[in-house]
Specification:
The structure holds 4 protein chains of 4 kinds. By secondary structure, chain A is an all-alpha fold. Chain A has helices at residues 18-23, 26-44, 51-57, 62-76, 84-100, 105-129, 134-153, 167-170, 179-197, 199-209, 211-216, 221-247, 258-268, 280-299, 304-334, and strands at residues 172-174, 177-178. The mean pLDDT of chain D is 88. Classes of the chains: A mainly alpha, B mainly alpha, C alpha/beta, D alpha/beta. Bound molecules: adenosine-5'-triphosphate (2 copies) and magnesium ion (2 copies). Chain B: Its main location: membrane.
């Protein structure tokens, strides 16, 4: 339709510069919240600003965050996995079982990862091949996976992991930097790159925004979702290794209720629960926010249940306040 | 139009429950004794009541994860009220429980309606908040049987015509919801909103308001169950009914209520709850280690959802005349 | 017919603005008791928006709606029906899980003394209504068991279930068969004699001249003209609608190439289509015509790998190819511009450039990693070729007007450099200017050697653009016409499956 | 001189038993003078919850942690870390593995408790009979050891037949359901032994609801305040418990000795614990506080208002 006589209309690539885009982002809002909490914490407790204490505090979120990164991708693609904590239980049980038969640390790690992966595949089959809603499937597998742990373990516990296995959950790389924190950082970078810098990541966003159009655009939607469930299972396996190593024992009730904390972290990180938007830096900051809140309140000996009020209010508040703000602004503009 | 006269899904689920009962009876005949079946029903009553509330919410394409926390908070509140004012008559207690539950449901509903926050996020948040509030108002302390008045703990277990009041409440709720869903404008709007929200707007239904009402209903039932629960087990503490919300959702799913909204029935929800109730009550009786319970109910959910999806798959419209004829 | 003094309903200078689109620009419309007013205009002229303003679904930004001369404001759809306005909407706005009777009466069902829905009365009333419009199915049936035509009848019954003074029909005949259309005409005559004011929206001119008393023309959201049907002829109405003579719309082109690009043999699907076979030549535009629901879209989607055919062979440049997914189709050079732009075409929520590069990411990336610079370059190239109107390339496609969204979708496919492009209703819902542009562009593509399959329900478009036309009915190919045989009456006759010339000719 | 800060970490907040222990701890603190008690714990009985609490306590650099553990093993790494940072760690009530604490204070000896719970049942069944055990959470240490000890001495109670052990998970509703299930599966059941304060109350309620008062005797370990009703109704003839006030008192005393008076906890050591006498540590550095105490209709009125 260009007839050559008139030059084509020019369309700029971007309207806003990179700087203004970043300044207006959710991540900045969240970062401000994180900094505020940090400041409040250091004012509220004399024990807060201490390298060792801060290092200990990271355990409050590292394992959850590892899963949260994979979960973020899954939620952006429009699915959810509520069975992650149960996968931890099952993977940990499998590791404990192997440890009874003298498996060494490398074998245990392999077993943890493989069991996580297999659980992910199991979920993926129900969701992508049978086409069932993931929230329902994973509520089912959540009972199933943990149930298998209960069948295997009953009221027993597996202990007696090899000494070298403790490195993952209790080791330090140098000074106060724990192995888990390093793993957290590495995984954050991997998932950040995967989501934001690759074709695969683009496909995730496309699927989350409009799965039908993504399919019509030649994206192998089911395959992408399959991989995402698999990754979430794998990350649950990694978390299982860390948690088991940190606890030094396995009981079927391990990581009970963690799935909701993981989902909370993802949503707090600005990932839309309806799919289609969100970022890894957001989840990273959300992990710190949750870790700081729980640790700061812990220093004041506030019971965990009261902390959850803060988390709950934070979850609703960070979504509700901007909306209330725009609604109020619109109202003022009209009158 | 045979398919219209016999609700297929409910029939199959009912048959599954019967088969389950027969299986249990083959190992332990006492389980199917009428008295015991009534016991099982009574034990499942709270789940049935909550499943009906959850059904309404799920039908409108929402989900309420805060029911168990709502139940626990209301239960604690009325228990403390009873301790403070032992003379308060039970109808007042029940009214307070329903009212308090409805208020919590309304908070969920308002956040969903007015601020358009996704229901799963809202109820995930309020679930944590409600539980926390229980701790704050009770200081973490238990309210024990001997502190409650006899009337308070006696109400759900009082027997009328051979059935405890708890069972009667469940039956009454089923009846009311049966009528509401099929015979009132609200009931039909709930189906309409979940089935086709865009079209609902065209027909003059306020979609947000219907969702709000669904949450209020679910909350009110959670409140009612809160009182019944606390009175029946004669104890109130922070963690009662922990994780029960997932069991309630599971009952709905097993009962064929589509998580995508718009499809489901009162009968389905009740049967779904009964299915779980039978399994839960049967395991200790037939000497299956209780450690198996979790895995069994998980498998039941998976099988039910896979099955519902298969049978519910709407046959696409058929263009080919020959294919239509052979159908 | 004597001219009544005041219209029952009138719209004065109504304006309705959507983000980026002025759907209605100070339009006027008057409806008179006992008369049928036809509202005509091209796709996107604002007809359905008018309906939604009149039924309280949209609130106008400016202007007044009057009933019997008194200004009214409708806050919600109930307010409009309380004022006696009822409508059959263009989209079927019904509920699959409810029964037919409930669909008809939702919101205003008869009640018993206790305030419950009186099901007996409701079924009775529904049965009566259905009988009156010649529908013979049980009102207790679940709606999802009905076919599209019957669903439309339910929608009509729903509109008639309120005691209305004004009945609006937005393309009521689009999905109906010949017999049902005849019954609808009778119904309209009946309503007229009851003194109801009727607004009738249709693209079919024979209908308009058969049943309308008056006409109102909109073009691109603006009011153009109104008058009595008796005072105007077909050509005059078209000229008002389009703003120029129709013949000039389609580009003239010549087809020379003979090389076979795509060969389809014996494609079949258990329930949707059977025995589909044809050959597509290089640089050819092949039209697919049929009534709505003829199965054209289904077949095209199976050719594109969305649904799996049960049998059949697809040969590309003589080699047999198995297409199991859209990704396979794209790598074989077949692309599909879907009919449902919002659901299947554009990924609303992603920026324009990401939409355009979505199927071509393999070319703009290196070993799986994105390269933004190349993405922008590719997106810019095609956006400019299609003369896209947008503020920037990183704007969300959802903010674009329908026509521009369609351009993004087409750009997305052209960027993959395909050999065969399937366009399903390519001009549906896009404005008149873009429509001509799309036609011109199609011709240009064909001239460059691209093979085009065009699915369209618009007869002028099919005839104007195609080198050959294949006509489908009930999932099968019933005819193939080319050259001088491509006449409106021939197409309609084959599509509707009627032997003799019908009154339905023309469009 | 700064206060000695002793953290009393319990399985879960809000449980009457631990509230009473906290009272005892405060009593000890008052007696000692320069002690600050931090009463804390998770809100649900999980090891992870306790680990987070322990981390917070380490961060506050408390002087001593006295913990009733939700898991024998899972807490060990966290408590080891605490000891590495110079914090005194003891366990009481429900123990941690030896490498995770300096000493463990048993409320009573396991053998005595194991014997006590079966004796309580047997005392009311002179002709023998069927009894069932309703245990607590499937993951808690105590109940399993006691049941084990009970099994060892079964020979001394001829005619008493333990038909099964079920788990109520320390949840009121689950325990109730399990107890009801027991009465259905074993219509001739004579007694239910519930060595857990949640389970015993639920079982008593279930017996009352089933109309089996007088047929099925509920016994085990429970709190007088919670069991008063059951004694009154006759659902329970008698039950036992150690005195949690004494337990909290002793734990605080012991922690203080280790943290402030440089007493070393080693096998064979005798450590004073105020009014409760001294604790003698065995080869596992464990010691027993006192015998369990039996409550029945004769003394329940006196105790039910205390804890
Ligand atoms: N909800 C909406 N948001 C944004 N734009 C809209 C919306 N609804 C309609 N439009 C735009 O308003 C214009 C008029 O649309 P309308 O549906 O009224 O056209 P129409 O005359 O009914 O066309 P057709 O013959 O295709 O039915 C179109 O450009 C359309 O894209
Ligand atoms: N039974 C039905 N129920 C609901 N919608 C239907 C039904 N049949 C057809 N439709 C809708 O009618 C429209 C036209 O149908 P469809 O696209 O299948 O027809 P086609 O002949 O394949 O193609 P085209 O519409 O392009 O001519 C579609 O939007 C489709 O969803
Ligand atoms: Mg229209
Ligand atoms: Mg089509």
């Amino acid at each position: 339709m260009t007839d050559g006589s008139t030059p084509p209309r020019f369309i700029p690539d971007r309207l806003r510069t990179r700087k203004t885009r970043i300044l207006h982002s959710w991540e900045i809002l969240l970062l401000a919240v994180a900094i505020a909490i940090f400041v409040i914490n250091s004012l509220a407790s004399p024990y807060f600003l201490n390298a060792w204490n801060l290092s200990d505090a990271t355990f409050n979120f590292t394992e959850k965050a590892m899963i949260a990164f994979a979960m973020a991708l899954l939620i952006i693609s429009g699915e959810i996995d509520l069975s992650v904590a149960a996968i931890i239980a099952l993977a940990s049980t499998a590791m404990g079982f192997a440890a009874q038969y003298g498996a060494g640390t490398p074998e245990l790690v392999a077993i943890g990862l493989v069991v996580g992966l297999l659980c992910g595949v199991f979920n993926a089959i129900f969701v992508t091949i049978l086409g069932l809603p993931s929230i329902v499937v994973t509520i089912g597998t959540m009972s199933l996976f943990r149930g298998i742990s209960y069948i295997v373990l009953g009221d027993e516990a597996f202990r007696g992991y090899p000494a070298s296995f403790a490195w993952f959950g209790q080791g330090y790389l140098f000074w106060v930097f724990t192995v888990e924190l390093a793993l957290f950082a590495v995984i954050a970078v991997i998932y950040g790159v995967l989501l934001h810098k690759t074709n695969f990541g683009r496909a995730i966003y496309a699927i989350g925004n409009n799965p039908t159009a993504a399919l019509f655009s030649g994206i192998r939607v089911q395959r992408v979702k399959f991989i995402l469930f698999l990754l979430t299972g794998l990350m649950s396996g990694v978390a299982a290794i860390c948690l088991t190593s940190r606890l030094g024992s396995t009981r079927p009730s391990i990581a009970q209720g963690m799935e909701l904390e993981v989902v909370t972290m993802v949503v707090l990180g600005g990932v839309s629960i309806l799919g289609g938007s969100g970022s890894i830096p957001g989840v990273v900051i959300a992990a710190f926010v949750m870790g700081l809140v729980t640790f700061g309140l812990g220093l004041l000996n506030v019971p965990g249940i009261v902390m959850s009020i803060f988390i709950g209010l934070l979850l609703i508040g960070v979504i509700a306040l901007p909306r209330l703000w725009t609604m109020a602004a619109a109202k003022r503009g009209r009158t | 139009m045979l398919s219209r006269l016999i609700p297929v899904r409910e029939t199959i689920l009912g048959a599954a429950i019967l088969a389950l009962l027969l299986l249990i009876a083959s190992r332990f005949s006492g389980f199917v004794a009428p008295a015991n079946l009534l016991n099982v029903f009574n034990d499942t009553a709270p789940l049935i009541i909550l499943a009906l509330g959850q059904m309404v919410v799920i039908l409108t394409r929402c989900i309420d994860l805060s029911v168990a926390a709502n139940l626990a908070l209301t239960g604690m509140a009325v228990a403390m009220l009873n301790v403070a004012m032992p003379g308060l008559p039970i109808p007042v207690i029940i009214a307070v429980a329903i009212g308090l539950g409805a208020v919590m449901g309304a908070i969920n509903g308002l956040l969903v309606w007015k601020l358009m926050i996704p229901p799963i996020v809202v109820t995930l948040g309020t679930m944590a908040v409600f539980r926390g509030i229980i701790f704050l108002i009770s200081d973490g302390k238990w309210v024990n049987a001997h502190e409650m008045s006899d009337a308070f703990t006696g109400f759900p277990r009082a027997v009328i015509l051979g059935l405890p009041v708890l069972s009667w409440v469940a039956l009454l709720t089923v009846a009311i919801f049966g009528i509401m869903m099929s015979r009132t404008a609200l009931g039909r709007s709930i189906f309409a909103v979940g089935g086709n929200p865009d079209a609902a707007v065209y027909t003059g239904i306020d979609v947000g308001r219907v969702k709000f009402l669904a949450f209020v209903l679910s909350g009110a039932l959670a409140g009612l169950t809160g009182y019944l629960w606390v009175a029946r087990y004669a104890v109130a503490y922070v963690d009662i009914a922990g994780g029960f919300e997932l069991e309630v959702v599971a009952a709905c799913v097993i009962g064929g209520i589509s998580i995508a909204g718009g499809i489901g029935s009162v009968g389905g929800a009740v049967l779904g709850a009964l299915f779980l109730g039978v399994i839960k009550n049967a395991l200790p009786v037939i000497n299956i280690s209780p450690f198996w319970q979790l895995a069994i109910s998980g498998s039941a959910i998976l099988i039910a959802v896979a099955f519902n999806a298969r049978s519910g798959k709407t046959k696409g419209r058929i263009i080919l005349k020959s294919a239509e004829a052979s159908e | 017919m004597t001219e009544p003094l005041t219209p029952v309903v009138s719209m004065d200078a109504i304006t309705k603005i959507f983000p980026g689109v002025k759907a209605l620009d100070a339009v006027h419309l008057k409806l008179y008791a006992g008369q049928v007013t036809a509202l005509v205009g091209e796709n996107g002229a604002g007809k359905s928006t008018t309906v939604k303003v009149l039924t309280g679904i949209y609130r106008p930004d400016e202007g007044t709606v009057r009933i019997d001369g008194t200004p009214v404001t409708f806050t919600d759809p109930n307010a409009a029906s309380d004022n006696g306005i009822t409508a059959i909407h263009q989209e079927t706005v019904l509920f699959d899980e409810l029964s037919v009777a409930e669909n008809i009466f939702i919101g205003h069902a008869p009640r018993t003394r206790f305030g419950l829905i009186d099901r007996h009365a409701m079924y009775e009333a529904a049965a009566r209504l259905l009988r009156s419009i010649g529908a013979n199915f049980d009102p207790r049936t679940r709606l999802r068991h009905l076919g599209i035509a019957n669903k439309h009848l339910v929608a009509i019954a729903r509109a008639l279930s309120v005691d209305a003074r004004v009945v609006i029909m937005d393309e009521p005949t689009a999905a109906l068969s010949h017999k049902e259309i005849e019954e609808l005409y009778e119904l309209i005559e009946n309503l007229k004699s009851q003194g109801k004011a009727i607004l009738f929206i249709s693209h079919k001119f024979d209908e308009i001249f058969r049943i309308a008393d008056r006409y109102t023309v909109f073009r691109d959201g603006a009011f153009i003209d109104e008058g009595l049907i008796d005072d105007i002829d077909r050509d005059g109405l078209v000229k008002l609608m389009v703003g120029r003579a129709v013949d000039h719309i389609f580009p003239t082109r010549e087809m020379t190439a003979t090389e076979d690009v795509l060969q389809v043999v014996g494609y079949a699907h258990p329930t949707e289509f059977a025995d589909i076979g044809f050959t597509l030549k290089r640089g050819e535009i092949l039209g697919f015509y049929g009534l709505v629901g003829a199965g054209r879209s289904e077949f095209m989607q199976s050719l594109f790998g969305i649904t799996k055919p049960s049998k059949g062979v697809c040969k590309i440049k003589g080699k047999i190819r198995v297409i199991r997914s859209p990704a396979d189709a794209i790598s074989n050079g077949i692309v599909y511009v879907p009919e449902d732009r919002g659901k299947q075409g554009a990924v609303i929520g992603l920026p324009i450039f990401q939409n355009i590069t979505l199927p071509s990411l393999g070319r703009t990336s290196r070993s799986g990693f994105l390269r933004m610079v190349e993405e922008f370059a590719l997106a810019r190239e095609y956006a400019e070729r299609l003369d896209l109107r947008a503020a920037s390339l990183d704007q969300d496609v959802g903010q674009l007007s329908g026509g521009n969204q369609q351009k993004v979708v087409i750009a997305k496919w052209l960027a993959t450099q395909p050999q065969v492009i399937i366009l399903d209703e390519p001009t549906k819902g896009i404005d008149i200017g873009s429509k001509a542009a799309v036609h011109e562009f199609m011709a240009e593509l064909a001239a460059q050697g691209l093979s085009v399959i065009m699915v369209s329900s618009e007869i002028p478009e099919v005839i104007g653009m195609s080198d050959r036309v294949i006509i489908m009915r009930d999932g099968r190919i019933v005819a193939e016409v080319a050259g001088d045989e491509m006449q409106p009456d021939v197409l309609v006759r084959h599509a509707a499956g009627i032997g003799e010339m019908s009154q339905l000719e023309d469009a | 001189q700064d206060d000695v800060r002793i953290a009393l970490v319990v399985k879960a907040l809000g449980i009457g038993f631990f509230e009473a222990a906290a009272k005892g701890a405060e009593e000890a603190a008052e007696e000692l003078g320069n002690v600050e008690i931090i009463y804390t714990g998770p809100t649900d009985t999980t090891a992870e919850g306790q680990i987070e609490v322990i981390n917070a306590l380490i961060a506050q650099n408390v002087d001593a942690i006295a913990i009733s553990a939700n898991d024998t093993d899972a807490l060990v790494p966290a408590l080891k870390k605490a000891m590495n940072r110079g914090i005194t760690v003891i366990s009481w009530d429900s123990g941690v593995a030896a490498e995770g604490r300096q000493l463990h204070l048993n409320p009573s000896s396991n053998a005595l408790i194991g014997n006590m719970i079966i004796k309580l049942a047997a005392d009311h069944l002179p002709d023998g009979g069927d009894v069932a055990v309703l245990s607590a959470t499937t993951t808690s240490t105590n109940q399993n050891i006691w049941i084990e000890e009970m099994t060892k001495v079964m020979g001394e109670y001829p005619g008493i037949n333990v038909v099964t052990t079920v788990y109520g998970d320390d949840l009121a509703d689950k325990s109730y359901r399990e107890a009801t299930g027991l009465m259905q599966s074993y219509p001739d059941l004579d007694a239910i032994i519930a060595p857990t304060s949640v389970g015993i109350v639920a079982a008593a309620q279930a017996v009352v609801d089933a109309g089996k008062v007088g047929e099925v005797n509920v016994t085990g370990l429970g709190l007088p305040s919670e069991m008063a009703g059951a004694i009154e109704s006759g659902a329970s003839q008698s039950f036992a418990i150690w005195n949690p006030i004494d337990l909290g008192y002793s734990a605080t005393m012991l922690a203080y000795q280790l943290a402030a008076n440089d007493v070393v906890a080693e096998p064979g050591a005798d450590i004073p614990m105020g009014r409760m006498g001294t604790l003698t540590l065995d080869e596992n550095t464990e010691g027993a506080m006192a015998d369990p105490f039996v409550y029945d209709a004769s003394n329940i009125e006196e105790f039910k208002s205390i804890f």
